[in-house]
């Protein structure tokens, strides 16, 4: 189970590259532009391995718009539970979709009801059996 702390400022996918004898995690320019992260900041990093699924893709830092819109309907698999008890599904580029009243491994049809820059909230339309 993944707990998302209330003081989390951003969530993004990055690529680990080797530069000489060091390894570097890329930070999307949008995080610098919005002031979430500044060059030379010391930050805490959590590593979440990207799962292979049809809804995940390679990181694309140039795309800053959320991968969903209000009213959009999708079928998703609940992968984790947040600190408030909501189910979590991961969409393109690691974008988080919170779905109340769901449990890990459930497959649900949802409608997106609220979209924010780094996450969205959806309501369950139908549980798969």
Number of domains in the coordinates?
1
CATH topology: OB fold (Dihydrolipoamide Acetyltransferase, E2P)
Low-confidence stretches: 56-63
> Which range best describes the helical content: under 10%, 10-25%, 25-40%, 40-55%, 55-70% or over 70%?
under 10%
Q: What class, by secondary structure content?
A: mainly beta
Q: Total number of helical segments?
A: 1
Description:
The protein is mostly beta strands. The protein has a single domain (1-129), classed as Nucleic acid-binding proteins (OB fold (Dihydrolipoamide Acetyltransferase, E2P)), CATH 2.40.50. 4% of the residues lie in helices and 32% in strands. A hairpin with a 2-residue loop joins β1 (16-19) and β2. The longest helix is centred in the N-terminal third of the chain and has 5 residues, at 29-33. The relative contact order is 0.19.
How would you concisely characterize the structure shown here?
With 129 residues, the chain is mostly beta strands.
SSE topology:
Elements: E1 16-19, E2 22-25, H1 29-33, E3 73-77, E4 80-81, E5 87-90, E6 96-99, E7 107-115, E8 119-127
Parallel strand pairs: 6-8
Antiparallel strand pairs: 1-2, 3-7, 4-5, 5-6, 7-8
